[in-house]
Amino acid sequence: MSAPTDRQAPPAPTPSAEEAGRRVEEVLDRLTRNGDPETGAAAEELVRVLMDFYGAGLARVMHHLERTPDGTGPHPALRAALLGDPLVTSLLALHDLHPEDTEARIGRALDSVRGRHPAEAAGFDPDTGTLRLRAAGSGGSGGCGCSGEDGAGRQSVEAAVSSFAPEVTTVEWEAEPAAAEPVLLQISRRPSAPATAS
């Protein structure tokens, strides 16, 4: 038997809510395609039961977090840590338990990637789920990774938005305005003065 070590295991990668949802849909589609409608219906019911169970547990967590026994409210650092965590936020939003509105969560998403891929919201349409974004601070050079040829930067931003605000179903990137052409300074010789009669 080996002695315990003081080293902690590296943290597991954060699961993506979008990826998990996609995998659940794939499994349900596979079960339905097999031709047994009873199996497909049972699988969908299982997903609903688990969602209800986890949702009830999360609602209880939020209840205790927001209403401490001494009436002081949640500890600010704990609240900030929970609401700033992409996985926790996506679960709370999925179950309609997140205390912040969509605009605030979009802001959190953009803040979470700002150091690497700065972008800013140009508008959100709740009726269509469409968020318009534009690259921020790139100066037209594409240096933020959100514009130009680098699609990985845009994907990182969109993944963050998907985690923090799953109600955003479409992201549209605004084209960067073309840099203004510099004004050329015309340098020419002064017109010669007319000759004066002596």
Automatic annotation (TrEMBL):
> What are the boundaries of the region Disordered?
1-22
Q: What is this protein called?
A: Thioredoxin
What is the protein's species of origin? Streptomyces bugieae
